[in-house]
What does this fold into?
Amino acid sequence: MAIAVALVLIVLGSVVFHWITPWWITPLASNWQAMDDTLTITVVITGLFFVLINLFIAYTLWRYRHRPGSRAAYEPENHRLERWLIGITSVGIIALLAPGLWVYADYVRPPGDALVLEVVGQQWQWRYRFPGADGQLGGSDARFVGGANPLGIDPDDPAGQDDVLVEGNEVRLPLNRPVKVLLRSHDALHDFFVPQFRARMNIVPGMVSSFWFTPTRTGRFEAMCAQLCGVGHPDMRGHVVVVEAPAFSAWLQDQPRFVQTLAPPVAAEGSDAFAERGRVLAQNKGCVACHSVDGSPGVGPTWKGLFGKTESLDDGTTALVDEAFLRDFIRNPQARSIKGYPPVMPRIELSDEEVDALVAHIRSHGKPGQ
Ligand code: CUA
It folds into this structure.
């Protein structure tokens, strides 16, 4: 009897909680109302079955409770009841799954005039590329990936020369224009997910996956990685900023073309431009995914105030973070490890000059007076 009462209370509590909960989907910012509709269908069907089954159990607990002298009847088969149950369950499952198939078929069939956006996932950051005036992305391959070419774009493909590269984790998109998103990964499984767009897709190394959506609201939306992809996974965040079409065109004009990024400006050692080169390298090599420059915590130490600091190492010794220390550490990150940080920093191929530029950049964020 007590269990019957508990079940009824659980059902009532769940239904009430569903209506008053503050945890519900964020307001929609894309064309994918259909995603929300399928979610609603799922909630209604599973909710209905949850309520009915639990109330039925509570009823039978009460109706057939133990009473002196009563005996249960034995009924091994009831074909009529079984047919009904199989029928109702089948209809319920079809109603749960079929709408999703329709929506998904739409989701991977972009309109012909869609703007193409390439998203490349890498432990642990996002990069973006748009086709240039020719409307075509240049070919890409892992063997072209290098210091100046983090996206691995084929340097000999004429279609790729005018491709627009976006520096950093933030990309802009025009309002009310369909966007076809092409997804690639440099390393592990990732998943590009912007909750407000109701749009996400797994990114599998070695293949290009895609989906499309139309942003219907201006604003700044967080893009997050939705596949556990290593220790920096929670930091793998970017932003999609939706702006009016003219603002988007102006912004796009300002982004570098692939051919420009292949020839970085020459800068003398010790100059501000040299540290600036280090900053761009830190972006392109993915350092910024783990090292902040504003003091916020990450997988690795923040670069703010790092230069000139004395760090404790896991072997019990201490070391002054100077140019020699940083150079050695970048060259061979596994040789020593700093207390409080997992030894996960990858070894990256860099020329001596690139290492110096990175060190200059880290130094520029060092302790005041250093
Ligand atoms: Cu990329 Cu999680």
User: Anything to note?
Assistant: The helical segments are 2-20, 33-63, 79-107, 245-254, 258-262, 272-284, 323-331, 352-364. The chain has a mean pLDDT of 87. The chain has eight helices and twelve strands.
